From TrEMBL:
Signal peptide residues on this chain, from the entry's feature table: 1-32
Annotated keywords: Heme, Iron, Metal-binding, Signal
Protein name: Cytochrome c550
Residue intervals of the Cytochrome c domain: 64-160
Organism of derivation: Variovorax paradoxus (strain S110)
Pfam family, one: Cytochrome_CBB3
SUPFAM superfamilies given in the database record: Cytochrome c
PROSITE patterns the record matches: CYTC
GO MF entries: electron transfer activity; heme binding; metal ion binding
Gene3D superfamilies listed in its UniProt record: Cytochrome c-like domain
Domain of life: Bacteria
Length: 164
């Protein structure tokens, strides 16, 4: 058997090593995205809402809640739903969550629609989303109180795709 020329072996070995390192780096990033631990949120600056979960967002239009919600969103939601709530296409784009309500002209129907979206949002965040045994979104109840969850909703309302 003939020995390979060392001058051609070195560049090939470098290319193989570079490809292996790139593969390891990308697989680490993919694993990091899938292993998300919910982070607690400091809501001490917000009014306490009590033990009973509210049916509608009590912090709608509250600038202090928007500030807390912005931080909470960045800590817990942005990695899947996108920076500034602009989704990269994998998880739902939360700027569009209440688009159907925005187009309603009747004030009573619009209010009912907003309440329904609030309920959907709250239920989803509290319980998470699982399909066929796969966790698509972890449950945040127990990690986040309702002040934190409603502050995130308040932040998202400032990021709406269609204004109300």
């Amino acid at each position: 058997m003939m020995n390979p020329d060392p001058r051609t072996l070195r560049p090939l070995a470098r290319a193989v090593l570079a490809a292996a390192m790139l593969g390891m780096a990308l697989s680490g990033a993919a694993r990091a995205h899938g292993d998300v631990t919910p982070q607690a949120v400091d809501t001490s600056s917000l009014p306490k809402l009590g033990e009973q979960w509210r049916a509608e967002n009590p912090f709608r239009g509250n600038s202090g809640a928007v500030t807390v919600g912005t931080s909470a969103y960045n800590q817990n939601c942005a990695r899947c739903h996108g920076i500034d709530a602009i989704s990269g296409g994998i998880a739902p784009d939360l700027r569009k969550i209440d688009n159907d309500c925005a187009s309603l002209k009747d004030a009573v129907r619009k209010a009912a629609c907003v309440k329904e979206i609030d309920d959907y949002f709250l239920t989803t965040v509290r319980r998470g989303r699982t399909r066929n045994g796969a966790v698509y979104m972890p449950p945040f109840e127990g990690t986040m109180n309702q002040e934190a969850i409603w502050s995130i909703k308040s932040y998202l309302e400032t990021r709406r795709d269609k204004p109300m």
